[in-house]
Design a protein that fits this description.
273 residues, alpha+beta, L,D-transpeptidase catalytic domain-like, 2 domains, 5-stranded mixed sheet, 5 helices, 26% strand, globular
């Protein structure tokens, strides 16, 4: 066999070997197309079309005073609603004013003064009082590799200025803030699960916790947005406690609200409105 042919054959064999044992990522981390790649059951209740944000566009510039409604519908924050991201734009904005994918009355919560329902399939959280929905908030739950546990839990602790002991702010060595945190579960390995403020990129992205809007935290850590407005983590925190915490100590709750987590976090699917 000619030397050149032998060398070529060897090179091809080595290449095939590398390809055979190299991991292939169908959806590489941090390369999500945005909310249009996610489908929720409630998408069928509102007519919408997909729009890719262009350079210089923002939710405020495009939708004026209704930008918050569009953000909540897409489960996305302003930091992630940037050029190249495809978002869902309703054809009739009046349908967004009171949008919630959760039931206005939830029978299992009928006798509870406070009750929290989290629907992973919809990526939404509802705060109930004696079965009636008081308010509903978009969330970012765990993804396929870091799932949020489902079942029945209780809020057992609250911490206004909680920090992650495992994760840092992107591009820094600072612990990731988990402001206005409410603990609802500790697994057998001792890992705690909290509802807390975090980034909402428009798809399930946490490590198992439940994330809520916290624009004041984003401004502090990233410098954006300049005018923080969405602060759902604080709203839920103060609803559970009946007001703001007096200090930054962890508060143990003996009779915290029941938390019911249902459904399964959606994956990234082909857009077909």
């Amino acid at each position: 066999m000619p030397r050149l042919f032998r060398h070529t054959s060897l090179a091809v064999a080595m290449l095939l070997s590398v390809l055979a044992f190299s991991p292939v990522f169908a959806d590489p981390p941090h390369r999500h197309r945005g909310p249009c790649a996610i489908q929720y059951p409630s998408d069928q209740t509102i007519e919408w079309e997909c729009r890719t944000l262009q350079r210089g566009e923002s939710l405020e510039k495009l939708f004026g005073e209704q930008w918050t409604d569009v953000a909540r519908f897409n489960r996305i924050d302003r930091r992630h609603a940037v050029a190249g991201v495809a978002i869902k734009v309703p054809k009739d904005f009046e349908t967004l004013a009171q949008f919630t994918p959760l039931p206005l009355f939830y029978e299992p919560a009928e006798e509870a003064e406070q009750f929290i329902l989290i629907d992973l399939s919809e990526q939404f959280l509802g705060a109930y009082e004696f079965g009636a929905l008081r308010f509903a908030l978009p969330i970012a739950s765990g993804n396929g590799s870091n799932e949020t546990p489902t079942g029945e839990f209780h809020i057992t602790a609250a911490h206004r200025s909680h920090q992650s002991c495992r994760y840092t702010v992107e591009g820094t060595d600072r612990p990731y803030p988990m402001n206005h945190a409410l603990r609802f579960h500790i697994n057998r390995e001792g890992v705690s699960y909290w509802i807390h403020g975090r980034d909402l990129p428009g798809y399930p992205a946490s490590h198992g916790c439940i994330g809520l809007y916290d624009e004041p935290m984003q401004k502090e850590q990233y410098g954006l947005p300049k005018d923080p407005e969405l602060d759902d983590a604080k709203r839920l925190f103060e609803w559970v406690l009946g007001g703001e915490a007096e200090d930054d100590k962890v508060i143990q709750l003996q009779n915290g609200p029941k938390v019911h987590i249902i459904g399964q976090a959606p994956g990234h699917e082909v857009h077909s409105p």
